[in-house]
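I'll show one example:
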Amino acid sequence: MPSVVVVGAQWGDEAKAKVVDLLSEEADVVVRSQGGNNAGHTVVVGDDKFIMHLIPCGVLRPGVMSVIGNGVVVDPRYFLEELEGLRDRGVTVTPENLLLSERAHLIMPYHRLLDTLSDGLKAGEKIGTTGRGIGPCYADKMARSGLRVVDLRDEKTFRARLELALLEKNVLLQKLYDHEPLSADAIAGEYRGYAKEIAGFVGDTEFYLSRARTEGKRILFEAAQGTLLDIDHGTYPYVTSSNAAVYGACSGSATSPKGIDKIIGVLKAYTTRVGSGPFPTELSGELGERLRENGQEFGATTGRPRRCGWLDAVAGRYVARLNGFDAIAVTKIDVLSGLEKLRVCTTYRIDGEVVNEFPSSASVLAKVEGVYEELPGWQEDISGARSMTELPEATQDYIHYIEEIMSAPVEIVSVGPEREQTIRRGREGR
């Protein structure tokens, strides 16, 4: 297996974790390169379900090194809680199989607080943030006022940068939100404890990954969220605060684009979205509820019900062009079983004009009326299929239709949440 990036091809929640877990069996290293503990990656192993937030899915595979790259924002409290939770369930997580970038930025208590307070101030324009402090932390990173994991090694440096940050944050908290100021002493003491507990995991991930590539190790990059939530190319402002498309894997891990051999897009067989923002193919009523219940479409991080809708070919073509996918993994296609007819949005109509391209403006996207093509559904239970030939003809036709939309071959088809409920085209029967 070469160096592979796994990218979400919709608004996140595409079941990327299952694909990463599947491919990690053939990897030496699994890398998270952006996002934070706002991402929930669910992996089902037998009767066990693991929900990962910060730690890469690679820790579930013996012999695989997991790396949290420089582009990830890290809440050390949550990192330690997730670490303990995995260990309590019998998963081995040590500095021998997990490395945390010293260049990663730290989520601070004021980030979490400001995240919640600022979204509450937006009235009708709420983004639907998880309140984990992700956006404010990335904002400080870009403003060059953030604190990084490496700062924890020097108490004097950490304290000086913390006090400088609080000069601004406490004014915001007091004057804008009528909130009491935060104590530098309390925060410094709390993070001093974290520094000792995470020290063994911290290192130069950039050097480690460079050496791994030189040694010919197989590297798998695990993106968080999805391309339509990308800070630059998603449905701004209803987006995440990092680059969730393929280029985030490069900047968030110090990997040259030349070091990427293959890009796999993960596309759910229908579309979902969590939180606010325009959603052209959203279904309301009984059909939307059916998809939600059958697909268990509830956020892994927040538990919020996901909005459900038909597959959107306009968005699919846009995302495929941005990422340049070499292959596609189609997930949750089993959820569509039992539907007599399927619909795919092929173009948009905006103010009476037919539009083939995905709009840059969220306000324009909110006015979209979808133009649909109807396809035959299938009644059979496909969760036991292990090859394409075992799928109904209508299911195979739907997969071929997706290949046309995404301009790339479908190599992986997921027919259920468990590892073995997967078809890998060209590898059936292995």
